[in-house]
Amino acid sequence: MLAPAHLCGLFCLGPLMLDDSPLYLGGEAGTKVPSNVSGNTMLENLIKLSEDSELNLQAQLRQQIVTLVAEGLIPNSQRLPSSRRLADSLGISRNTAVLAYQQLIDEGYLVSRERSGIYVSQAVQCGGPRLADGDAKPAVNRLWRQRLAKHVQVDSGFPVPPQWQDYPYPFLEGEFDQSLFPVAEWREASRLSLGVREINDWSRARGDADDPQLIEQIRTKILPRRGISARPDEILITNGAQQGLFLLANLLFDVDTCVAMEEPGYPDFRELVTRAGSELEFLPVDTHGIDISKNSGRSQFIYVTPSHQVPTTVTLSSERRTAMLGQAAQFDQIIIEDDFDSETNFLGNPHPSLKSQDREGRVIYIGSLSKVISAGLRLGFMIAPAELIEALRHERRYLSRFPAANNQRTAAFFLSLGHFDATMRRLHQTFKDRWIALRNALNHYLPRAVYTMESEGGTCCWVQGPAGLQVEELCRQAEMRGILIEPVAHFYGATENHSGCFRLGVSSLPVEKIRPGIAKLAALIRELSGEPCDALDESNPQWFTNAELTRALAGARLLTKTVYGQPLTIDLLADGRMVGHAGFANEEQDEGRWWVADDRFYRQWQTWSYGEAMSFYTVVEQDQVRWYDHDHRFIDSAIMRHQQAKDTSAVQLEP
């Protein structure tokens, strides 16, 4: 048990006694405490031990004593209280205090003098000259402002709030909630990498070489899944995919280089090209990925994110992949394939990588382990011809020599033990559930207000809002309501045609938060969109009531679209059953029931629309059906075709 907070002073309950006189810690050695100094003035609260800390009591005690010594708050050569007195004062076991003291003695912070006690070691440099409060110097003075002015660029990207996890609904791409980290698996791999034999291996200086075990695991475990075969000398380990791009820009780009990239595209890569002084050529992106028909052939390099394009998430079609490789040979171009998100295809299998189809060594492949395990891990890799890898290794030597060897060995164990594959399967299902939940919520709450770019998966959606929506104001107002969404202006390098677009990510919040977050966002979008409300006119003669509505809809087939642009067909059978098919190949199906009551059309799916019963006022004009909610606001519309004979006898007029 810990002592109560008000008893946990600095080592003891009262003033620290050395020679029957209280010592004022923090003053000169041996300074006596004036009679008017209270217990609080004697820093009695400097050491606080907490049962809630992730560190045990012994580690907390060591940590805090080291801090006090380093900051000069315990003067050099001063005797510390005995382990018994320290333990009694803090309400801890004497064994805890003894072990803490002993380790600090072993490490040279404290010394034990026979028949005298424990003292702060004179060899420890405690504290130093301190600035008075008014002497603090500015972080950057005029001297440095002048020198940095032409080198430091203002980051125009989206600033993620530092405390984004405190927001109820953080729809942020690239941020990960900590529940997804494979703690137990990484601990096992880390423990194995810290064995004596392993430490003796990875701690030896190897020049600028990478860990051969990690190279082998990437070569045999990860690359075959992407259809890539590579020799060890064709693989380079990097501090995340970002360092790979940096190395390529440093080595290959200059003022005589032209580089093509997607528009919109990854802003950090655009900045690297600009810093190198190279010319940029922007190729537009549509529903099939980068439009390579716009490739002029002027560029020596093409940067592409084919699996899930940054930022729209669309997947580069197989036809365009083949055409891009043909163009690269025709125009003598090099393709930089950033495949950071290759595994998250939910509507089909991942396409073969461009590198797997490369027969001329024209594709540089960049992958990442950080995207899967943890963004803070900072481990990535590059696949390229051996000559280029050797040049990149030489370039990396002057930047970081090589990524931390212990992290490399831990990652190698993580892969070899099967943890990577297991984590991938778990994340795939988790992200699939979240991504589908996001699409369902958008389809439920904003069926006509927004449109999302077609995608086969990923961890975010690119959303086109209603006309007149000011995204900057939407983001500001949403944040005030606890909702974080991402504007997209920073993804464009030459185009201003991004009005009304924003991104919603799902890697940062659990699935149960998605629906309520989108419901709140939908209400805000309706509030800010500025569009005139398309309200139901009750005097409209086409506003159908019970019997008319039943006759009009029984046996009808309704043709409409989902919010993500796929066709949706609904058959309203005469017996009150309802059958739905969604997708270009009817990939999604559901059944439910429909009925008419209170002059409204009711429908309830088994799983779609959360399986909830919904009612609508309905207007039928020739072959078009329009639905309105209980507030008479327009919700959705469909084209109506009759597929069956109109036998309405079996249709319920009441639920």
Task: List descriptors.
eight-stranded mixed sheet, Arc Repressor Mutant, subunit A, about 650 residues, single chain, Aspartate Aminotransferase, domain 2, alpha+beta, disordered N terminus, 4 domains, Aspartate Aminotransferase, domain 1
3D architecture notes:
The protein folds into four domains: 5-120, Arc Repressor Mutant, subunit A (Orthogonal Bundle); 183-417, 3-Layer(aba) Sandwich (Aspartate Aminotransferase, domain 2); 424-528, Aspartate Aminotransferase, domain 1 (Alpha-Beta Complex); 546-642, Lipocalin (Beta Barrel), CATH 2.40.128. It is 29% helix and 19% strand. The strands form five sheets. An eight-stranded mixed β-sheet has the order 5-12-11-10-9-6-7-8, with helices on both faces. The chain has an eight-stranded antiparallel β-barrel with strand order 18-19-20-21-22-23-24-25. A four-stranded antiparallel β-sheet has the order 13-14-17-16, with helices on one face. A hairpin with a 5-residue loop joins strand 18 (556-561) and strand 19. Helix 7 (212-222) runs parallel beside helix 12 (405-416) and helix 8 packs across helix 11. The longest helix is centred in the middle third of the chain and has 27 residues, at 419-445. Residues 55-123 form the HTH gntR-type domain.
